[in-house]
Amino acid sequence: MRTTRVFDLASRLAAATGAEARIRRLPGGGYRIEATLAGNPDAETHLVLLDVLTEADRYGHRHTARSDTIWAELDPPQEPP
Q1: What values do phi and psi take at 31, rounded to 5?
Q2: Strand, helix or coil at 55?
Q3: For a designed S-S bond to 35, which of 8, 17, 53, 78 qualifies (C-beta 3.0 to 4.6 A apart)?
Q4: Which of 76, 75, 45 has its CA nearest to residue 58?
Q5: How confident is the model at residue 1 (pLDDT cuts 50, 70, 90)?
Q6: Alpha helices by DSSP H, 1-81
Q7: For residue range 6-41, what is the model confidence (pLDDT) as tens digits?
Q8: 25-26-29 Cα angle (round to 5)
Q9: Spatial separation of the C-alpha atoms in residues 31 and 46, rounded to whole Å
Q10: In contact, 77 and 41? CB cutoff 8 Å
C-alpha cells in the first residue's frame, strides 16, 4: 500500500533530521514529505538522509535565510495497463 511507504519514509526522515516530518497530499494524488534541518548536519547524517531520499520518486533541498528543508515526493500508484 502506498500510504505505508509514505509513513515509513516520513518516519525515517524525521529520525534522520531530528525534526517532525510533515506530510502533504499533492493535487495529482501523490505525497510530499518535508522536514526542517536543525543546524548543520555532519557527514554521517548526510549519508543517512541520502539513503532515505533515494526511496522517493523526487527529492530535494530548499535553503532560505531562515531554514533548510529536505523534501521528498512520492507519485500516486500507477494502474497496470
Answers
A1: -135, 150
A2: coil
A3: 17
A4: 75
A5: very low
A6: 2-17, 43-53
A7: 999 999 999 988 899 999 999 988 999 999 987 787
A8: 85
A9: 23
A10: no
Task: Read off the C-alpha cell for 35.
Answer: 522536514
Cell numbers at 42, concatenated: 555532519
Residue at grid coordinates 536543525 = 38
Could you tell me the pTM of the whole model? Answer: 0.84
Q: How many CB atoms lie within 10 A of CB 22?
A: 15
Residue 49's contacts (CB-CB under 8 Å, 6 or more residues apart) are 13, 16, 17, 41, 70
Q: State the Cα torsion 8-11-57-49 to the nearest 10°.
A: -130
What is the residue whose three cell numbers read 532560505? 64
How is residue 71 written as a grid cell? 523534501
